[in-house]
Amino acid sequence: MLSVDGSTLPGTNGGGGGSVGWLHNFDADALAGVAVEHQWMSVAHWTFGSVNGSLTRELGDARYSFYGEAHEGAGDDGPRAFKYSSWRPE
Questions:
Q1: Cα–chain-centroid distance for residue 14?
Q2: Which of 44, 45, 49, 88 is the most exposed place for a label (fewest CB within 10 A)?
Q3: CA gyration radius for the chain?
Q4: Are 84 and 75 in contact (CB under 8 A)?
């Protein structure tokens, strides 16, 4: 996967960004992906990476699906730096 974007914002130098990622379906029951993204708007900029996966298994007469994703990154809004973290297991 590959994406690029751009935007305009009155009174600033606008913004833009891009990302690159990989998504793979190992079989009918397993999927995984990784990506990295960078964005900027006016004086702010940030970069983060993502990983995700999904697994489905049969157990008796039922099928169960498990999914998880994580996003980690950092950036700044001009004078202040920040970190970004989001984890989601299901």
A1: 22
A2: 88
A3: 18
A4: yes
**Mean pLDDT value across the chain:** 92
Please compute the mean of the pLDDT values over residues 74-86 and round it to a whole number. 92
Higher pLDDT, 9 or 34: 34
First CA to last CA across the chain, in angstroms? Answer: 25
CA-nearest of 34, 46, 38, 43 to 11 is: 43
Interstrand relation of 62-76 and 30-41 (parallel, antiparallel or unpaired)? unpaired
The pTM assigned to this predicted structure is 0.78
How much of the chain is helix, strand and coil, in % rounded to 5?
A: 0, 80, 20
Query: In whole angstroms, what is the distance from residue 43 CA to residue 15 CA?
Result: 9
Cα–Cα distances in angstroms (integers) from residue 24 to residues 49, 52, 70, 80, in the given order: 17, 11, 17, 37
